């Protein structure tokens, strides 16, 4: 097999933004093995797409696009049977949380795990401090659609937390 | 402040994702090679399965053509086996061309604009190939089964066609059903489910 060309500048950029791949894999895949596979596939897709990176957007934004696209399409079909929605036990959190706030955030994580792939991507970008315009740039949704969706997602998440707490 | 906002503040302030081992150049190169090998393996498994089926058809038709068509100068065998080969050849050529398009996406050839456009591109490539494959499945497979059934009885079971018409039809129906079962499972795994998933994602994008 031919030796793949990997230049230092590219690897440096990847290393500086490696957190993105980890965050995406953590958001979309439930166990360590799947996450590791996901990160490897993301690296491969990044390497494959890098020559088309024209520098018009930030490298981190571009990396988010590639990693999210990989999570949404390539790996979803490969791991169809394994990729169940996140369950409580996947987080391996203590059954008795220290306080209410922690419990609520734990429930929020569970509720996020049940969102659709696209809404999960929007939440991830939002959590990472992306503005609506940047989320729109990554996903391809209009800015107003991102805003409307985030309002709905918030409502949905709050409702799910409330339901869980009332049980 | 809602829970998502609290989480956003924690997420950005905590730095909980900061502990990663950076890639070394040779390590990254090894990873890419491994992934390339994995991709080639997935693609190769499907391609060789299909290609082998075509080779078997050529070998079988060729054998029948030479042994019973040319040597014994049987016009029916000659016509059917030549027809079978001639009909299969364009599909093999098209299969190889389409498959090359599907498999060999060169490094950097696809720009990354948005996630939506990436999903659309992938959906387009896969559905185009599936359309071609369905044409092959619905058109060529029944013809192959029919030729196979007729030739088998013509060569190995002496007697007029009216005498063996029911067994010929039975063999045709059984072979068609077997092929249909195998194709259905293959299409479901490699095309229908992935396309449904991609369509689901695209549908989510179109929701207002």
TrEMBL record, chain B:
Membrane in keyword set: yes
Transmembrane segments: 46-70, 76-97, 135-157, 163-183
Keywords of this entry: Membrane, Transmembrane, Transmembrane helix
Protein known as: Uncharacterized protein
Organism: Arthrospiribacter ruber
């Amino acid at each position: 097999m031919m030796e793949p060309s990997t230049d230092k500048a590219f690897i440096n950029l990847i290393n500086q933004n490696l957190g993105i791949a980890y965050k995406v894999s953590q958001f979309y895949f439930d166990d360590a093995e799947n996450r590791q596979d996901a990160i490897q596939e993301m690296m491969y897709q990044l390497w494959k797409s890098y020559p088309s990176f024209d520098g018009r957007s930030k490298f981190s934004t571009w990396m988010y696009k590639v990693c999210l696209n990989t999570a949404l399409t390539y790996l979803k079909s490969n791991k169809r049977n394994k990729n169940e929605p996140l369950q409580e036990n996947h987080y391996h959190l203590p059954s008795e949380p220290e306080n209410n706030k922690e419990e609520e955030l734990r429930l929020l994580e569970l509720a996020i795990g049940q969102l659709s792939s696209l809404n999960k991507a929007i939440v991830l970008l939002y959590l990472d401090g992306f503005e609506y315009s940047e989320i729109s740039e990554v996903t391809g949704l209009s800015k107003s659609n991102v805003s409307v969706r985030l309002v709905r997602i918030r409502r949905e998440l709050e409702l799910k937390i409330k339901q869980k707490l009332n049980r | 402040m809602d829970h998502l906002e609290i989480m956003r503040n924690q997420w950005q302030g905590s730095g909980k994702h900061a502990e990663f081992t950076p890639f070394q150049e040779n390590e990254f190169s090894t990873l890419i090679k491994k992934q390339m090998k994995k991709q080639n393996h997935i693609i190769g498994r499907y391609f060789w399965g299909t290609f082998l089926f075509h080779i078997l058809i050529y070998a079988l038709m060729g054998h029948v053509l030479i042994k019973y068509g040319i040597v014994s100068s049987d016009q029916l065998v000659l016509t059917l086996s030549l027809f079978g080969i001639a009909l299969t050849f364009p599909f093999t050529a098209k299969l190889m061309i389409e498959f090359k398009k599907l498999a060999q996406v060169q490094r950097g050839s696809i720009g990354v604009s948005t996630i939506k456009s990436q999903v659309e591109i992938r959906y387009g490539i896969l559905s185009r190939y599936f359309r071609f494959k369905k044409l092959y499945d619905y058109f060529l497979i029944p013809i192959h089964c029919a030729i196979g059934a007729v030739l088998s009885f013509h060569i190995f079971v002496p007697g007029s066609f009216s005498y063996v018409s029911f067994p010929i039809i039975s063999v045709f129906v059984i072979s068609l059903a077997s092929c249909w079962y195998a194709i259905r499972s293959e299409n479901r795994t490699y095309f229908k489910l992935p396309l449904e998933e991609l369509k689901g994602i695209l549908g989510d994008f179109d929701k207002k």
